[in-house]
Amino acid sequence: MRKRIFSSLAIILSAALALSGCASIPRTSTVQQIEAETDASGAESYSYAAEGPAAGADARAIVEGFVEAGRSVSEDYAVAREFMDAQLSNTWRGDTQTLIYDAFNVVNGADANQYTVQLEITGEVDEHGVRTNYPDHSTRAVDIEVAKVDNEWRITKAPDGTMLEASTFTKIFAAQTLYFYDSSFAYLVPDIRWFTSGSGTTTSMVEALLDGPAPYLQNAVISAFSTASELVRSAVPVRDGEATIDLNSNTFAEATDRNILLMRQQLETTLTGLASVDSVKLLREENEVNLSTEDTNIEPAKVNPSTQDTLIGISDQYLVYVKGLSIIPVGGVPDISGYDPRDPAMSPVGNRYAFLNGRRTQLWGIDDSGQLRLSLEGQELIQPSMDLAGWTWTADNGASTPIRAVPADTEMKGEARPIDVAWLEGAQIDSLRISRDGARALIVATEGNSTSVYVAGVIRDAEGVPRGLTDSPMKIYPEVPVNTALWDSDSSIIVAELGDDEAVEAAQITFEGGSEHLQLLLGMVGIATGVGNRREVYAETNEKLYTRVGNSWHELDDFAQDVAYPG
Fold first, then answer.
1. Residue 563 contacts by C-beta under 8 Å, 6 or more apart in sequence?
2. What pTM was computed for the model?
3. Which residue spans within 26-77 are E strands per DSSP?
4. Which of 42, 288, 315, 517 is the most exposed place for a label (fewest CB within 10 A)?
């Protein structure tokens, strides 16, 4: 059955029940071994030797066995269906959602022959492969009804979906990356999904791609495929490294040669991330798709494009470049020492700069010709971030709508624009960084005593003017305290809680779920990381500048403060 992508990433913990004593939650089923297999496409899949219901098992054992049988995905969850009566077995779907749990317990429900599965969950994957992670100690309750069928207890009512213990989940599911375009079609933006491993992975990925981006990217990225695009059959065969994608005629109804090339590029970038796929073949209802002329070509879109390896910083009240172990004054710019400059930023392209004054009440910009101008006045401004389209982003925490975007050319595009974000109402913005592709914003925000890390899509109009952020952000749960976050790649970030009076532990977090903690540094007040291979990570205290070597910090001979990579 075709998978669609419209579910929200927002956390909805409905019907949650508090768990107590989770470490002692019992399970009656024996843990079975998961064995790896290799299918014809070369993809590794896993089968779980789950057991069906035992003769004469009581009702609670049937419910517990059903939970454990979620590990067996073969033959459309055939083992799980054995615990059901005939009617439910014919209608129940196991692929609509997967609850990822650390522990579960089965308790009596509100009515006779009703049981509740109490789960302490860490995450959830919906039918489209979109994963939502939950904070520690989150709970979920699943109600199940049973009845006697031919003198054996069977499940007569249960919600669609399965439940998987966290360590088993990572054996059965794997993170895969779909790609969509930024508004200029110059960059491919990653969209991480989770699918069961095996021969059906390529099909799941293509169907998900055709249905569009995850909620936190909707209206911020573009697909080369129209909403009418569908596979002719729910299958993407892979033979000798070539994946064949047979699409309906509606896919190509208004497609130009350029559209077709963009489709191929989007599919190739997505599917060649699989070990089994080297190339793709595009069909239109079993007929090969050809261009009307061989002269058409497109500029290859960039994936995880590197930032420059030269940083901007402040030394003795002047702008300086930091490159490797060298600190070099920036030429061709005016004297800014009178502003007590701090938190400088440098554009990803061109020679534009921005910085805050010492009181954080003014944002100043320096254009390509070296002209200095006041870009924004406010209160409690935060470190600016400059995007590829020429916009400088900051937040004015003294304003009711704190996020602001300032165009490079105020004469043509006007003054700073407030970016209204309903889900940030009442929050203080601690950190804001725009991704290298310009399609996403990485935000650290504090409301009351709670600090959260979000990734949201940047919505722009046809001219690249930012109009807002997407309504359903992806929320990230770091294992370390946070007040700042930076892009480390197009699908990983570095977070830390900077401060000059304690040892600070930064952490690298990937969107696939991995994390790595960096070595503690006493009094870390700044950190800088750039997108791309072999980009140095810099950290600073009030008196010293360091680079990361392995997992330790190496002190530099010279010092610059507030160092930042372009962007």
1. 311, 312, 313, 322, 526, 528, 538, 540, 545
2. 0.88
3. 34-38, 44-48
4. 288
pLDDT at 538 over 80: yes
Residue pair 458/389 in contact by the 8 Å Cβ criterion: no
Angle (nearest 5°) at CA 152 between 150 and 154: 105
The DSSP annotation for 150-218 comes to TTEEEEEE--SSEEEEHHHHHHHEEEEEEEEE-TTSSEEEEEEEEEESSTTHHHHHHHHHHH---GGGT
Q: Are 180 and 221 in contact (CB under 8 A)?
A: yes
Are 248 and 230 in contact by the 8 Å Cβ rule? The answer is yes
497-512 pLDDT per residue, tens: 999 999 999 999 999 9
> 243: helix, coil or strand?
strand
| Token pair recorded at residue 506 | 């930064």
CA-wise closest residue to 363 among 406, 321, 333, 397: 406
Roughly what angle, to the nearest 10 degrees, separates helices 59-69 and 74-81?
170
DSSP H or E stretch at residue 81: helix 74-81
The Cα angle at residue 401 between residues 400 and 405, in degrees rounded to 5: 145
What token pair was written down for 523?
């009094």
Q: Is 390 left (phi over 0), alpha (psi -120 to 50) or beta?
A: left
Q: Are the C-beta atoms of 411 and 394 separated by less than 8 Å?
A: no
